[in-house]
Every structure is written in C-alpha cells, then in structure tokens.
Amino acid sequence: MLSSSKVKTIYAVFLSIVCLLSFNPIVEAACGGANCSLLTGSQDGVLGKDRFVMDLSYRYVLSENPHRGSDSTNQALVPKVNFETRALELGHHNEIRTINKLAQFDISYGVTDKLTLSMNMPFFNDRYHEHFDGIENVGDTGTFNNTDGTTGFGDVTLIAKYALWQTTKHMFVGGVGIKFATGDYKLKDTSGSINEPTLMPGTGSYDAILSGIYNYSAIPNKLNIFTSVSHRFATENDLDYQFGDTTLIDAGVGYVLTKKVSVSGQVNMRISGRDQFIDANVPSTGGEFIFITPGVRLAVYDDVSIYSHVQLPIYQRVNDVNLVEDYGVMLGASYNF
Amino acid sequence: MFELKTLNGKVLKLSDLKGKTVVLNFWATWCVPCIKEMSVLNNAYSSFKNRDVEIVAINFAESREKVEEFTSEHRLNFPVLLDNYGDTSQDYKIRGLPVTYFITPDGIVGDEIVGGLTLELIEEKLDQLAHLLQLKAQY
User: Fold this and answer.
1) Which residues are bridge partners to A287 per DSSP?
2) Nearest CA in chain B to A222
3) Considering only CA atoms, which of A12, A37, A40, A8 is closest in space to residue A24?
4) How many separate domains does chain A show?
C-alpha cells in the first residue's frame, strides 16, 4: 500500500505546479486602442480583464528511495489504515516503488484586471506502486504486490487570485481556494477492502487554500524574482481520515533568454503535517521536503507556449520511515487568448 | 526626478532641464499606441522648441540596439532616454504605456495624458500649465 505521504506528494506537486504554471516570465502587455497596460500580472497568475489561459500538463514523479527521517535506509515499513476494523495496522507492508502520473487541465480567466479565477482539474491520475504485503512478523519479507494502484479523476480546485499591490516593478497577489472532493476516495483494493486513502485519486475532503505571491520585476521583460507561500487547510473526510495540512514555500527567478525562450529556477519547500485517522496520528506521514526546480519555456506561437520543469530533491525528511521522491518531471502546453 | 542615459551614452537629469517645461513621454517599441504618438512628439518638438519646452521620451526597459533601430527608422528628433531597469518608470508610477507628463520649469508634475496624444492636446496642456504658472507668479 502507498503511505499518506504519497498522496501528499502528489497534491503538493500539484500545488507547486500551480505556482510554476502561474509563473510566465515573458511579460505580455495587454494593449487597448490607446494604451498598453504594464500590469498584466501574467507573471503572478493574475491575468488582464477578459483574458483566458488554458493549460494542459503531464507530470511524472518517481519515488523509490526509502528514508528514515532525513537519512536513507534499506526499507520503508509503513502502516495500513484499515477502515473496516477502524484500526491502524503498524508495520504492515514494505514500500518498494511508487510512480505517480498525472494529467491536468487548468483554465484561468481574468474577471477584472486584478481578479483572476482559476480551475485546476487533475483529470487523469495513474498511481502505480510496488510493495511487499502481508508482513506479520519481524523478518518476514511478505508477498510482492503491484496491483493495488489506482486510476481516476482527481480533486478539482478553484482558486481566486487578487492583485493586492501593483506597481511598475512590484506585485503582490493573494489567493483563496477550495479543493473539492470530486475524486474517488473509496475504491477497493485487490482483497476487496477500502484501499489506503493515499492510493485514491481524491482525498474525500473539502480543503481551503490560502496563498500569497510576490513578484519583483528586476529587469522588466527580462528578469523576475518571485516568492510564494501557500497553505492548505485539510478537513476530515467521511471515513474519519484527515490529511495533514500542507505549506508550500517557493522562491525563484525567471529570465527571458530570447523572445521565444525563457528559463526559470526555483527552490520549493513543502512542509506536511501528520495525517490523522479517528483523531490519532498516522505514522509515516508528513515531513519536510526541499527541491530545486529548473524549467524552460518555449513560445511556439505568440499565444502558445510549451514548457518543461524538473523537480529534484535536495533535502527530504519524513516522519518515521517512508519512500521519498527521486525526481519529478513536468511537461505542458499553455494557450493564452 | 530622473537621471538616465541617452542613446549616445550621455546622462540627462531632470534638473538639467530646469527652467523649461518638460513633456516627458514613456513608451516602448512593442506598444502600438506609443508608436502612433511618435510623429506627434516629433511635430511637437519642432513646434514648441521656441517656447522653452523640451520633449523627452523615456523608453521602458528595452535594449539600446532595439531603441536605436526604432529611433532611426522613425527619425525621432527629440532626446530618448533608456530606463533599462524600469526604476524611473517605477518612480513615476507608470501602469501603462504610453503616458505623458507635463513638468513645470521648477520640476513639478503639472498634468498627464494617458494615451491619445495629439498636437492640439499638447498645446492645450502647455497653455494651461503656462496659465497656472502665470497665476502662481501673480500670487
């Protein structure tokens, strides 16, 4: 079974990517008949009035590195959440590998020059994982299993972003959002019981998200420096399971190399709280993770660009023991109109 | 309020223009409404230079090469300054282009026009400014 940190990883990568996608270092002025606004805010995820951005992306995240705390270890023995007996079965299975593949569609609309609404739709989650199951005693190797992965539609998030402070070179954008429980969260595993919450495409909970993004245009149209913070307030689902809150802190730079090519570099930090089941902490959930994320964006046409980001861990600490991320890759295309 | 380099590398400060009314235009080569105004500014430069009026254009954060190419193509006859890092635009709280400020001989921003610049409008603003300065001098 996957541990809770896996879904958190997926969700946090998703949230990070929301920030990544919202960063478009190519400042495109919105020109009317008599005036071109410099405050399009496209670099902060706030669009000009009546502007749309559609984005399609694909992410691949590999985790096969067992950690105890912040150190590598030789195995990740994690608990099972048993919803039938309403119990945590400690040391239940040994994690081997998890591969998360996620396809997502995002659409943003500029309601006003300051207010943008975004919808993030993870329409295809594919979670492949391998573990040794049925470990009952210390020393047992268990039975290899790679058939408990899931595939499905995930949780949709709606976010409203508002430019609270805009000047020629500075911008601060605040955001509030809701993550809806649109994805499956009661799928059955191969033995017929409700699968681990962490294996599900959705969390089953309605969560609140608060975010803030600051952007400094060091050299307009050339070099941007930005930082962002977001926090997800998780709630309990009707299985009495609650994912831990997640805080994301990002900082980075974007540089326009040519009219068509821009590059970016970010440091992303994620802090995840422990999950809870019937008000008890779930072992092997939560931790702190820091990544560096280089990226490149290529403008194919004036209104279409393709991009790629690679997320590489530089520090990962899990509570207790669990697999950590080896790397993540994201490919995408966006269309502005 | 500004100190920027011209295309030939000389530094021009607002204080260098003390005693003259300054028509300060912010623009960029990618800004279509700005391009439309350039011929107006060219005409204004010729028409008002005998009125102690200085026309100055500040380019928003583009390369010297690009601006030089543009100025020679459009045969601009007034000084063009380079705001490479956008700091002067930040100081003037520029939110869109083009925008034109009318600065009194003692360095105070008297009026502004956001887009839609015409020779008549410039003349009207200069007359208003001159009238205000006369009133100020009287009292």
Assistant:
1) A272, A318
2) B61
3) A40
4) 1
Taking the whole predicted model, whether its pTM rises above 0.90 is answered as: no
| Phi/psi-derived region of residue A142, left when phi > 0, alpha when psi is between -120 and 50, beta in every other case | left
The domain B3-7+19-138 is placed in CATH, from the list 3.40.190.10, 3.40.30.10, 3.90.550.10, 3.20.20.60, at 3.40.30.10
Q: Which residue has the tokens 């709606």?
A: A158
pLDDT tens for A182-193 read: 999 998 888 888
Contact A218 B85 (CB under 8 A): yes
Taking CB atoms and an 8 Å cutoff, what residues of chain A touch B96?
A: 35-39
| A255 in contact with B, Cβ within 8 Å | no
Asked if A248 contacts A230 with a C-beta cutoff of 8 angstroms, the reply is: yes
pLDDT category of residue A144 using cuts at 50, 70 and 90: confident
DSSP A188: B
Q: What is the ipTM of this complex?
A: 0.77
- For B10, counting Cβ atoms within 10 Å of its Cβ (0-12 exposed, 13-18 middle, 19+ buried), the class is exposed
A265 half-sphere exposure, CB direction, 13 A CA radius: 2
Chain B residues within an 8 Å CB radius of A220: 60-61, 85-86, 89
Q: Which helix H or strand E contains A316, and what residues bound it?
A: strand A304-318
Residue A61 lies in domain = 4-336
pLDDT tens profile A61-78? 999 999 999 999 998 888
> Smallest CA–CA separation between B116 and chain A, in Å?
6
